[in-house]
Amino acid sequence: MLRYIAKRFLIMLVTILIIVTLTFILMHAIPGSPFNQERGTSEAVQANLEAHYHLDEPMYIQYLLYLKSIVTFDFGPSIKQPTSTVNDLLGRGFPISLELGLVSVIVAIISGILLGIIAALRHNKIIDYAAMAIAVLGISIPNFILATQLIQSFAVTWQILPAATWSSPKHMILPVIALATGPMAIIARLTRSSMLEVLTQDYIKMARAKGLSPYKIVFKHALKNALMPVVTILGTLLAGILTGTFVLEKIFAIPGMGKYFVESINNRDYPVIMGTTVFYSAFLIVMLFLVDIAYGILDPRIKLHKKEAE
Amino acid sequence: MKKGLAFLFILLAVFVLAACTANESAGEEDQDTGDQTEATDEGTSDEADNGGNKVLRLNNGVEPTSFDPPEGFDAASWQSLNNLMEGLTRLGQDHQPEAATAESWDISDDGLEYTFHIRDNAKWSNGDDVTADDFVYAWTRLLDPEEGFSSAFLGYFIKGGEAFNSGEGSADDLGLEAVDEKTFKVTLEAPTGFFLNVISNPAFFPVNKAVAEENPEWYAEADTFVANGPFKLSEWNHDSDFTMVKNDQYWDKDTVKLDEVHWAMVNEVNTEYQMFQSGDLDTSEIPADLAEDLLDSDQVVIDPQAGTQFYRFNVNKEPFQNVKIRKALAMAVNQDEIVEYVTKKGEKPARGFVSYGFEDPSGNDFRETNGDLVEYDPEQAKELLKEGMEEEGYDELPPITLTYNTSDDNKKIAETVQQRFQQDLGIEITLENAEWNVFLQDQKDLKHQLSRSSFLADYGDPINFLESFVTDSSMNRTGWSNQEYDDLIAQAKEEADEEKRWELMYNAEKVLFEEMPIVPVNFYNQVFLHKDNVSGIVRHPVGYMELKWADKN
Fold first, then answer.
1. Which of B347, B251, B232 shows the shortest CA–CA distance to B291?
2. Class of domain B306-460+516-523 as given by CATH
3. ipTM field
4. Which segments show compositional bias classed as Acidic residues (chain B) (predicted)?
5. Partner-chain residue, chosen from B1, B22, B153, that has the shortest CB–CB distance to A45
6. Domain A93-309 sits in CATH 1.10.3720.10
């Protein structure tokens, strides 16, 4: 197990290095500069700005400077918000995105699994159709439309919830609903189909024959196996949601880190692009790793060190 | 098996613990009623808290770039910075510079030396005096090439400013002098009739030298920020919101009516409008889709902005090397149609480059005096196009591409222009859009043929508009170069006599339109919704706002 983790860790480092290099090449390949503005700037001013951020150095020096900044995890100041360092931005934004993301994921998992189980147990009955109708709606309505509609109804028309910003638990309700609905629908559908499959298997029939209570059958025997596909998507889902979502954070004016992914590229804010990329890829890789570990725990037949042999 | 179950239980336990706050939303439907009562309760108590205080709720859109005066060179910083600090002059309710930190000034006869007398009661929010040294320190910093401020060019009016900023001169040669504690003398490169206007810009705000030398990052947080304006910074949650309260050290504090201004950062105009409707904001911009419906509402306040939307011809690319072809196309752009049916925010159509709102010494408006320099006239446009094509020996016009930066509004305007060219001149042009930064880069590199542009003034004088098109200006971006025009602008910058200076500027704009390297489309507006109980917010055409006179009842 330890050897496996060590090896995975090395692979992670190599992956991150490749991602960083590709990002560096790509971001310098797009035309434009962080100092481009509609207003004209004199050449002297332009030159002073570039020197200030080491952008006048040759590319390989800039690349080495970036590698250094990654190793020391110090990306320097943002170009667009010069009074904050990239670490400040991540340090402020990530906890908020994490809070919103975690609550949403929990809501999505619990309600998704419950919805899936209910649908599977009442297969081809009204409740099944209703649950799946909700799921289809959840998948097909884009979350930004749902968000705008939620604000319009709850904040403007009925005035029972705040429209936007991030200052109290109450402010969380609408964004969590908007963010959780999509993943909830996906999880519900996955749970339903794998539950249906599991419920027809011999060991469940055996359990029924033994006269176990339906509650025990579902939660002790069926659910655990039915959850495997859900666990599979959990890694990417978590990484995506926990690091913030640009559109929803913008609509609800939530000061998370989602906006930096998009705006840093629009602004050609090189240090922020690198910072967010490294952070996100490291986060995603760790999540996928945890999912692999979770497989082993949920299903002892999957042996991690066997994977290693492959 | 047991291990697996244990894992699941732990997971569940973590969920439940972490979801303490989530519970409110977890059982969405069941708990709705509970939330409702809670929400209304808190709503009323909020209002009660603010009963005695006048709290204005505004939206800054995004995090201010920086509260370091020369660094925060954009509207996102100016909106609030202009109310936290104060330069020697401040633009008044009529947008003209008034005495502010300086109570008076003397100007030498040659117009080159300005001696400012700083108020005795001009104080920093920490109680320090605002001194001439603070200005010398701040303005030297503005021009320091090491700092790399993009606003530095505004300091080029100061003697030795450009040389120092380009790394050729030294700080010692700058025309800045602290004569005594409260007397500040500035020497200029050339008589600059609008200097008092320029220095109202936040880039020229003083910096408390003692504070800045002790803590170079004094502007980064609310508790270290020292203000000298009508308000001071009391709280700043980065990327989320900030609050400023009345500054009791301000020399003119009796004028200030508001107790507190709260700034949200909502960067989505639909949400902003929804918050305005639900009472969370006192002002709001107007979502584009609702512009037509909302523009007639009596909550709408429209202020002109000193700025122009226009198209640039690239005179290095065929067929725009020919002035008649340029003029023909310019005369086929129907400005009235665009402002009335496309942009729809009550803008004025632009038939010159300098916007309304600049008065010459005899009190006449620049735009009205210089008149319409290009007008929609399809008949004459056809004629000019024919002549131009003959001059160039074209049987058929080379293909034309109009490029704009990606946005719905830009697209709609470009399509209107495309249609006019086709109907009035029989020319088919191609439209092309590009991401903002790519677009700007290509425009600077003169890769476009015909491209969309906008200009927003940095200070309130027509020269700021007109100097854009001198040869090799970084704002030129047309390849156009004209000796007569360059001379007129250079003379205007040297001229001490205001009458003559304005005459030179009038002539320069006429030369520009005889040559037509650009097509103006419209002048900009600042359109806002204000709650009925809000009054006295002043928005200057140069883009910053004043809350000094604002009130909320």
1. B347
2. alpha beta
3. 0.82
4. 26-49
5. B153
6. yes
